[in-house]
Specification:
The protein is α+β, with helices and mostly antiparallel strands and 295 residues long. 30% of the residues lie in helices and 35% in strands. It has seven helices and 13 strands. It has helices spanning 3-32, 39-49, 77-80, 120-129, 200-209, 269-272, 276-294; strands at 63-72, 86-90, 97-106, 136-142, 147-154, 157-160, 168-172, 177-183, 186-196, 218-228, 237-249, 252-259, 264-268. Strands 1, 2, 3, 4, 5, 6, 7, 8, 9, 10, 11, 12 and 13 form a 13-stranded mixed sheet that branches. A hairpin with an 8-residue loop joins strand 10 and strand 11. Helix 2 crosses helix 5 (200-209). The radius of gyration is 24 Å and the shape is globular.
């Protein structure tokens, strides 16, 4: 055996290994660095230098799990037995409930499109008719189709899904009464330990630096929540903490996302949300394929 040649191979191999590990360590270090400048300095940059209007109060950054995995929970027949006045069906996977109420449940029409709070009637419905209903929070109202959507809450923060509908959907009749609902429920698990989040001010500055917001824009609202990673073909949903920043500009109002750990602008929520036309096309294509399969 040629020991000199073998020794040279080992030296080169370990050299490459050290370079690779050093690169990984540097990448991990850089990704963990959060801007620590005083809030007053960032605020001056936003308000005084760029005339960006900020809310009177902004949420602070905090230590939050950097990755949360959500797996669809399997419903047990026994936990559905106590739900009153409704006909409940489970899909074959036991992960989706389809409910039809014996009698329509009346809610106040004026509260159907209230994005900031639930009416007392809706809150009463969720706690009485929906298993774990207190784990959901209002998302949006589709008046044209008579559907009210709800997101699930984890550790006091809203979880947002993209590429699929929210996990709880209420169906309304023409009189604005609830006639039934479809429910999924996620079981969440922290995949990575807590890390310091960028402050809400820093997240707004990131949007300014990436030209997602401009001079004279107005920041209406800032919220820290868990947003899906937009990964397809997975049996689970993967969520990351992100700042959702509502901005008013010359073109109207838009909601923008900033990754709270990496300090990266993600994009416009409207562009990430499910497209109703695409959903209709997929449904039509599915029906056509089903018809062709039968013939």
């Amino acid at each position: 055996m040629n020991w000199n040649r073998t020794k040279s191979i080992f030296i080169v191999t370990f050299l490459f290994l050290n370079v690779f590990l050093g690169w990984q360590l540097l990448d991990k270090y850089q990704s963990s660095q959060i801007d620590t400048r005083p809030s007053s300095t960032i605020e001056e940059t936003l308000e005084e230098e760029n005339n960006i209007a900020l809310p009177d109060e902004l949420p602070e950054g905090e230590r939050t799990p950097s990755v949360v995995v959500g797996d669809l929970e399997v419903f047990e027949e026994s936990e559905l037995e106590g739900l009153p006045s409704q006909d409940i069906r489970l899909d074959p996977s036991l992960t989706t409930i389809s409910s039809e109420l014996d009698e329509p449940f009346d809610i106040e029409p004026s509260e159907q499109d209230d994005s900031t709070s639930l009416s007392s009637e809706l809150a009463s419905f969720l706690t009485t008719y929906v298993r774990g209903g207190d784990q959901y929070t209002y998302s949006r109202f589709d008046e044209g189709n008579g559907l009210v959507y709800f997101n699930q809450v984890y550790e006091g923060k809203t979880t947002y899904l993209y590429g699929t509908d929210e996990p709880l959907v209420l169906s309304l009749n023409e009189d604005g009464e609830i006639t039934g609902y479809e429910q999924r429920r996620y079981q969440f698990e922290e995949n990575q330990g807590p890390r310091e989040m960028a402050s809400s001010l820093r997240a707004i500055e990131v949007l300014l630096n990436t030209q997602n917001i401009q001079r004279n824009d107005r920041v209406e609202d800032v919220e820290l929540g868990y947003h899906s990673f937009f990964l397809e073909d997975l049996s689970v949903e993967v969520f990351a903490p992100m700042w959702k920043i509502t901005v008013e500009n010359e073109e109207g109002t838009e909601e923008l996302l900033v990754d709270a750990t990496r300090e990266e602008a993600i994009g416009n929520v409207e562009e990430l949300a499910p497209n109703e036309e695409d959903e209709e096309d997929e449904q039509e294509n599915g029906e056509i394929e089903e018809t062709q399969a039968r013939t």
